[in-house]
Write a structure and sequence with these properties.
With 325 residues, this protein is an alpha/beta fold. The protein has 14 helices and eleven strands. The strands form two sheets. The chain has a six-stranded mixed beta sheet with strand order 2-1-3-10-4-11. Helix 2 links the parallel strand 1 and strand 2. The longest helix has 23 residues. The protein starts with a helix and ends with a helix. 34% of the residues are buried.
C-alpha cells in the first residue's frame, strides 16, 4: 500500500513538474487574482486594472484579475482553485482557510497608515431614526440593510458587538431586512428603502471624496472597535518560486510617484506588507462568541441539543485556532 501511494505521488509530481516550471518561467497558465467588490464591479475594475498591468510586467507572470460580484463568489473562486490568490475580507479569509489549502501572506496598507477601519451603522440625516437607541427600541418598526455573511464590517462585527449581546436577530427584528454589498446597503439607506444599515469607515471616506453630497446626507449611529486591515491570501500549493515572485513585487510596490497614484485610486491604498494567518485571530474570536451566544439564546433548542452544538463549535474553534498559528 505504501509503495502504491509513493508511486502515485511520484507520478503526480512528474505530471505537474512541467506545468509548474512553465508557470514559474511566466509561460504557464494564468494566475487568477480575486478582488472583492465593495462598490460595483465596473468601479473596482477601473481602479485596479492599471495595477494589474504593472503586476504582470513586474513578475513576468500572466496574472489576471477576477472581480468577484459577491463575497461568496470570491470565496468559491479560491476554494475551487479558479483563483490562486487575492484580496478578501478577514471573515471571508477565515472561511477560505477553513475550507481550502490557503493562507494569509499579506495585508493592505492605506494612505493614512491606519492599522484598520471600523464597522458603522448609518442612517439618513433627514430620516426618522435619530439614534441607535431609537433604532433598537421596538422590533419590526424600522427597515435595516446588512452586509453579506462573509463581510467583517457588514456582518461579523455588528453581530458580535451590537446585536448578539442584546439578543437581537436582525433578520427577525427589522422589517424589511435586506443583505447586500456595502454599496447596496448604503444605497438602500439613501433611497429610503430601509431606515439604517451597516457600512464602514473606509467606504464612508471614499464616498466623501467621490460623492460628497451623498456622504453629507448620512449620519453615523454606531461605530465599532478597530478592525485590522484586510488580508491578501494565496493557495499554499503555488510553487515557492512563484510565491517569492509575487511577494517581491507586492511588498516592493508603491515606491514611485506613478505607483503611488495607482494605489491611491485602488480604494486609497499605499501598498502591501507581509502578514500571516495570525491576523485573523480576532475574527475567529468574534465568530466563535457570536455562534456560541446564538446557541445559548435559542429557545427552540433543548439543553441536550445546545450541548451538542457547543461541542461542535468548540471543535471548530480548536481546529481553526491551530490553523491560524
Amino acid at each position: 500500500m505504501r509503495r502504491q501511494f509513493l508511486q502515485r505521488s511520484l507520478l503526480a509530481a512528474a505530471t505537474l513538474a512541467p506545468w509548474l516550471r512553465a508557470m514559474a518561467q511566466g509561460n504557464g497558465p494564468a494566475l487568477n487574482f480575486v478582488v472583492i467588490t465593495t462598490t460595483t464591479v465596473e468601479e473596482t475594475k477601473a481602479s485596479w486594472d492599471p495595477f494589474f498591468a504593472d503586476f504582470r510586467i513586474g513578475t513576468g507572470l500572466d496574472i489576471q484579475p477576477y472581480y468577484a460580484p459577491s463575497y461568496s463568489a470570491a470565496i468559491e473562486a479560491l476554494v475551487s482553485n479558479r483563483a490562486q490568490l487575492g484580496w478578501l475580507s478577514s471573515k471571508a479569509a477565515l472561511d477560505c482557510i477553513e475550507r481550502a489549502n490557503v493562507e494569509v501572506f499579506g495585508q493592505l496598507i492605506d494612505s493614512s497608515g491606519s492599522p484598520g477601519y471600523r464597522s458603522i451603522i448609518i442612517a439618513r440625516k433627514d430620516g426618522p431614526v435619530g439614534t441607535l437607541d431609537q433604532l433598537l427600541a421596538k422590533p419590526r418598526t424600522y427597515g435595516f440593510a446588512m452586509g453579506e455573511m462573509s463581510s467583517t464590517s457588514g456582518h461579523a462585527m455588528p453581530s458580535y458587538a451590537l446585536f448578539v449581546p442584546r439578543g437581537i436577530k436582525p433578520e427577525e427584528y427589522f422589517v424589511p431586512f435586506i443583505r447586500g454589498t456595502h454599496a447596496q446597503t448604503m444605497d438602500a439607506v439613501l433611497r429610503g428603502q430601509v431606515q439604517a444599515g451597516t457600512y464602514n469607515t473606509e467606504e464612508l471616506q471614499r464616498l466623501k471624496a467621490t460623492q460628497p453630497a451623498r456622504a453629507a446626507s448620512l449620519k453615523v449611529l454606531w461605530e465599532s472597535a478597530l478592525i485590522p486591515k484586510d488580508p491578501l491570501l494565496w493557495r499554499k500549493d503555488l510553487p515557492l518560486s512563484v510565491r517569492n515572485r509575487l511577494a517581491a513585487f507586492l511588498f516592493g510596490y508603491g515606491k514611485t510617484t506613478m505607483e503611488k497614484a495607482k494605489l491611491k485610486q485602488m480604494f486609497d491604498l499605499a501598498g502591501f506588507k507581509p502578514s500571516s494567518n495570525q491576523q485573523l485571530k480576532f475574527v475567529l474570536e468574534i465568530e466563535d462568541f457570536k455562534q456560541r451566544s446564538e446557541v445559548l439564546l435559542d429557545s427552540r433548542l433543548t439543553e441536550a441539543q445546545k450541548s451538542e452544538k457547543l461541542v461542535d463549535l468548540r471543535d471548530r474553534y480548536t481546529r481553526l485556532a491551530r490553523a491560524l498559528q
